[in-house]
Structure formats: structure tokens, C-alpha cells
Sequence to fold (687 residues):
Amino acid sequence: MIKKQWIIMLVLVLFAFGIFGCGQDTTGPDDEGPGEEEGTILIGIMVPVTGAYSENGIDMENAVKLAVNEINAAGGILGHTVVTTTGDDECDPAKATAAASKLVSEEVVGVVGGYCSGATLPTLKIYGDAGIPLVVAAANATSLVEENPGWTFMINSTGDMQAENAIGWFEKQGVETIGLIDDGSAFATDLKMLTKQQWEAKGKIVLTDDTVTTGEQDFSALVTTIMSANPDGIYWTAYHAEGALIVRQLREAGYEGIIIVADGSSAPAFIELAGPYADGVFCTAPPFADLNPAAAEFVTNYKEMFNSDPGAYSGLTYDAMYLLADAIERAGSFDDTAIKDALAATDGFQGISGEVMFTEKNTLGRSNFVILVVEDGKWTFAE
Amino acid sequence: MSFWEIFAQQLFNGLLIGSFYGLVAIGYSMVYGIIKLLNFAHGDIYMFGAFTGMVALGLLSPAFGNAWLGIIAALLITMVFVGLFGVTIQRVAYRPMLKAPRLSILITALAVSMIIYNSMLLITQGQARPFRTGLTHESFFIGPLRLTETRIVLLVAALALMFLMHMFITRTMYGKAMRAIALDRDTCQLMGINVYKIIAITFFVGSSLAAAAGIMAGVYYGTIHFFMGFLIGLKAFTAAVIGGIGIIPGAMLGGLLLGLLEAFATQIPFVGTVWKDVFSFVFLILFLIFKPTGILGRVESERM
Fold:
């Protein structure tokens, strides 16, 4: 009997290693040891480079690498060459915690990234405790603002601004009743609640309010309930994998109202998966580098270097890396508190996605959301 | 939409999703019935089938002018291929464990599931893939029902496969042998039945049915991803238990029932989509408490 128990214990331990082992990223730093030695500094990138949301994550990682190449070519930061190391968060809170701990143990000077809010959230305290500034390029749930220990800086606008943007667009289209759908993730639930509050505060009606399970493929029952309530507009607040399926099944069932998807669905994969049904779908999106004239040079360089389109968040991530470099230059040293203060004092930093200045809570002091629409299988400006 | 329109639509939705559950549940139930193994890798075989089908369709569809002909060809080839894949898994991972304690083979099944899952994650890099069939999805009305050609064909095909499966189990020698092995493996061996061969056939049939369900899901939803097997594996397991695990018609019945439950649960006020899955698993728990043998199950008295 005892022997059998030992075998079970052993298997459990092996499993634990198997599961947590996946959280470790295999792409280590380009050189060993603490960042400040031998004239180099180490910058961490925390994005999902594997998993269902890796498309955006890889774009973001590429954008940092592009920025770092340019910074190094221009003499580095304070005369030091920049080296990057990636922590893969896989959009999963547990994996993100492991990734953040890995970056902290490698003694990075600062971290750029943060795609999924749910995965970014538990890392804020880890970086805060270690005194490492984190510049978040994409994640924007309200909880990130509430849990910020003071070391996180968000250069993407927050969820309430996105909700405002969606509502503004619904009103412009004459929509009176809406249906809301999220997938239960931190970011999507937050955005849904904010939209609901703001919409109802205007005295308007939310007809349906649903949460779907991530990984589910069949939404026909949900589509039938929505069709029977028949709202004028629908807002999907989560990511592209389920979003494409829901849009497809809604349109197949004959839904003709206005559909808006949140920035999590702005990846080109959304259009690929939804096929012809994507046409006419709107999106509350961050400043797309592809459509931004100020980012033309970045887009050209990006396409040349990585042979692919830059995607939704690479422009902001590129800005985040430059902002961090700028703050270190202004701080004049690699002292963590000095860098944090320099970041907080940012005023009038011009990135390719626009000007950056922070509110008291370290969030972007303006709304940068735009409305996009799918036309002929491509995102374009709706206005 | 009026009450009856909603009712008819949800009835159809439930039957279609339920028939997918049923096809996967048959494989679960067969394997459990014959070697008392909860084959956790079964959902992943479904997913593997969907991806194999995508590749086969990509290679075959240009050769056929008609979209449906291409799909049928891809379906048949994939069913054979994934069936053999299932047999290989059985030969490599399960057969050496047949005489070992039940827990060992259960853990082996978990390991097989993780190997398939993570291999597909690596191959697809975690991206959802579009499943292109070239079918149009024009919808039309039959009475109050809004339907597409695809949905009708898929439902008919799924029910036909279930019927064929039922005939196979009840009318053929192999089916008879499977049922005998489920009752008493050792005696069957003494009676001259090649037990290992029958177990291999069971895995072949179960895996090819799961693959068929995977391809059908691809055709229907237009998107496949590496984690599609997890939820359906869970649901199919639930369906198998509700219908009576180890009993083939029970798996079909359980699948259809679960699909209908889910479709109508979204319609109940305050249950809705959010609690839909909770609703079906509560149903599972109720079954386990009040009728643990499932709808078609009988209490077996074991003679020692």
C-alpha cells in the first residue's frame, strides 16, 4: 500500500513540474548576469508569445526589438547597450506570475508589455515590490488602475474611455437598445460593466447581458436568445477567437443590427476567422500603427524587419520602449526610484501614437481609442 | 420571435450540438465499457481529427469540383487515419497497462491527452485556424425554423453515423464480441476471442467517430483551435454518464439530452448563457446521486 502511495505522490510531483514548467520561457537573456554590468542594460518584455493570443504578443515583442535596435544604433541609453529578455505570460495569470518572477530575478531595469489585463494584474505587485517600473502598452482594465502600487504606467487608455467610445458610436448610429457579451475575463467583464453603467445612466436599455465560456464553439443557443430579444446593437467586449465565431453565427442567423467588438478582437485574425461575416463590424481600437500617418516610418521598418503587418498594439509598445528609454535618460541614472519619478513626470513625450502625459493614477491623460470598421476584409477608419 | 419559433429553433440547436456530443460520447462509452478506462485523451483525438480534416480538405478539395464531395472524401480519409492513430495510442500506451492497476492506466490516459494537446499547441502555435470549405451559408426558413443547408446535412450525417454504430454493435460479430468482453474479459479469452484485436477495433471505431465529429464541427463553425477538445471532452463524458456509461445507445441519448438541456437553459430567465454549463453539470450531479447508472443503466450484480 505504502509503495502505491509513493508512486501517486511521485506522479503528482512530476505533474506539478510539468504544469509549472510550461510557464518558464525558453528564450533566455542574450547575455548572463545583472543588467548594468559591462555597459549593457537589460529590459524585460512581458507578452504572450505562445497560446491563443500570441499573435498580438509576438507583434509587441517585435516592436520592442525594433525600438531597441534603433536605440542601440543611436548610442544606447546613457551610453549603455540595451539587451532584452522575454517573459512569456501566455495570457494566463499563473504563467504571468512565473514570467514576472523570472524577469525580476534577471534584474531587469524596466519592463515593457502587458497584453491581457487578467494576466498583467497579478504581476503589478511583483514589479512594485522589486522596484521595477512597468510600462503597460495594451492592458486597460479598471482593476489595473486600482491595484497599481505606483510602479505601473499605462500608455493605453482605460476601459471607461473605451466604453465611452463604443457608446458614442452606438448613439451616432441611432441605436436605442443593446446586447452585451463578454467571456468572463478580467478585461472583458470590466469593459462590459462599464458600458452597462454608462449606457443605463443615459436612461437607455440593455436588453441582453451574457457571458460565454472561453473555448466554446457553439453559440447557437445564445444567438437564438439574442435574436428573440433583438437589440439594435451588440457589443462583444472580449477577444477575437470566440468573437469571430459569435459574429459569424449571429450573421448566419440573420442578425442585421450593428455589431461592435472591443480592442481585444482587433487582431487581423478576427477577420480571417469570421470571413465574409466580418464585413461591417465595428471595433473600438487603440491607435492602429497601420492607419496612423505619424507611424508610417515605423510601419515600413517593421514590415522590412519582420515581414508581417504590425498589428494592433505594436505602435503603442514601440512608444512604451521609447518612453522608458526617455525616462531613464531624464533620470540620468539607473536608480529605480529616479526612473519611476521621471516616468511619472512625463510631459509632452511624442510617440508615434500621439502625446503621452500621465494622470495622478499613472494612466494616459487622454483617450486614444478610435472606431474602425471592416471593409473588403481590412480594418479601416469608420469616420 | 414568438414562443413557438424560439422553441423550435432551440430544439434544433440542441439536437445539432447534442449529436456532436453524442458522437464523441460513443467513443468514451465504448472504451469504458470494454476496458473500464476513462479515456481522457478522447477530446484531444476529436481536436486532432479536426486538424487532420483541415489538412486533408486542403489537399483534396481542389481535386473535387463540388464542396460536399471534397468534404466527404476528407471525412472518410480522416476517419481511417485518426482511427489508426487511436489504435496506435492504444497499442503503445494502454495495452501494456491492461493488467496494471486501474489508476495507472487512467494516469497514462491523462499523459496521452497532454502529449496530443501540447503537440498541437506547438504545431499551431496556439492560433485558431479557419476551416475553409467553400460552402455557402445561405439561410432559409422551414416554417418557423431558420436553417442552412449545412446544418441539415450535418444533423442528418451525425444521426446516420450513430445509427450505423448501433447496427455495428448489435448486428455484427465484432459488436457481439465487444459486448461479451465488456461483460467478462477473461472468460472471452478462454472462449477463443482475440481480446486484443477487439480492443484495437474499439479504439479504431471510437477514434474515427470522434474525428468525424471534429470535422463536422470545423465545417459548421468555420474555426478550429487546439483547445477545442477540452470542453467537448468534458461534455461528452457528462453525456456518457447521463446516458449510462458503457452503454452505446445511452451515450447517444445522453448527448442529445445534454445538447437540448443546454439550448433550453439559455432560455430560462436568470440562468442564461452565464450559468448554462453550471446547469448541465448540476444535472450530472443529480444523476450521480439519484440514478448513478444513467438513464439506460441497470445495476449489475457481480458474481464473485
